[in-house]
Structure formats: C-alpha cells, structure tokens
Write a structure and sequence with these properties.
CATH architecture: 2-Layer Sandwich
Distance between the termini: 25 Å
Strand order of the largest sheet: 7-6-1-3-2-8
CATH topology: Peptide Methionine Sulfoxide Reductase, Chain A
Oligomer: single chain
Shape: globular
Number of strands: 8
CATH class: Alpha Beta
Radius of gyration: 15 Å
CATH superfamily: Peptide methionine sulphoxide reductase MsrA
Largest sheet: 6 strands, mixed
Helix content: 25-40%
Order of helices and strands: EHEHEHEEEHEEHH
Structural class: alpha+beta
Strand content: 15-25%
Number of helices: 6
C-alpha cells in the first residue's frame, strides 16, 4: 500500500496525537507546527500567537481511507470556533487541515460539505496546502501516554479518547495503549 501524509490542527496537539495514534491504519503521528510565517517554530514562539503557526499532528497512514480519518477529526474538536478549542485560546489552536496531495483537497472539501449540517454554526476549518513542518520539542511527543494522570490529560484528552472508542470502535487499533 502507498503511504500518505495529512497534517491536522484541532486544538492542542497532545489531544490529536493521542486519538490518531490509536487509529487503525495510522503508521505514525508526530506533533509539530505548520502554517506560520517564521522559518523555525518553537513552542514558546508559537504560544505567543505571533508566528501564525498552528499546533498540528502530521499523520502517515496507509491502511485507512482519508474519509475515515476526517470523520474522527470532525468528531474530536469543534471546527466552528475560530482560534479556540475549549480553554485553549489563540491562533495556534485553530481548526486546519494541510493537504499533501491534490486529491486530498477534493476529499476534504467533500467531507466538510457532508458534515456541515451537523453543526449549528458554520465550519471555520482552514484547508491549505502543506507548508514546512517543524517537529515539536521532544517533551511533547507521546505526551498522553507518558503523562496519563496529569490534570490536562484527565480533563481534556481522556474524554476525547473515550469518545473515539465509543463512536469509532471499528477504527481503533486492537493493541493501542
């Protein structure tokens, strides 16, 4: 099977990484930054809100259709709130999809059209061509698995994982952490 890459921003990358790291057909998930005007991105700079980067996860997949991954994407965050997910506020937490292949853009647009009526507000998710990806600092990688009892993990990430398992059992890896 051919490997594909998609980069998703749906709020804090710890949440998105934890969910997609448990999805069948996903080979790897890496937290990082994309979409900004600076040539390098660091957590501190991105959190300042001045670089225009979003917190994202870069997903490499081959055993699942992009349409299925997008179903999960729409379900695990609020794509109608610009620059905000829950208590996380700022442009780095915006809803954004960076496509890496031309046909992905068509799939994304069709997916957006099919879910738009499920929301009471219009979708504000940006759809953009992939830009340079800057990996997050090592302490962000695999954050939920290494800090499952941290307050943020318990309050924000655990409910997203429970939602993923409840609504997408067919997409959950059998041997996920």
């Amino acid at each position: 099977m051919k490997k594909h890459t998609i980069t998703l921003g749906a709020g804090c990358f710890w949440c998105v990484e934890a969910v997609f790291g448990r999805a069948e057909g996903v080979l790897s998930v890496q937290s990082g930054y994309m979409g900004g005007k600076e040539e390098e991105a660091t957590y501190e700079a991105v959190c300042s809100g001045t670089t225009d980067h979003a917190e994202v996860v870069q997903i490499v997949y081959d055993g699942v259709a992009l349409e299925r991954l997008l179903e999960v994407f729409w379900a695990i965050h609020d794509p109608t709130t610009p620059n905000r997910q829950g208590h996380d506020i700022g442009p780095q937490y915006r809803s954004v999809i960076f496509y890496h292949e031309a046909q992905q853009k068509e799939i994304i647009r069709a997916s957006m059209a099919s879910v738009a009526s499920a929301f009471t507000q219009p979708l504000c998710t940006q759809v953009l061509p992939a830009m340079p990806f800057y990996p997050a600092e090592s302490y962000h990688e695999n954050y939920f698995n290494t800090h499952p009892h941290a307050g943020y993990c318990q309050a924000v990430i655990t409910p997203k994982l429970e939602k993923f398992r409840r609504f997408f059992p067919h997409l959950a890896k059998r041997h996920a952490p």
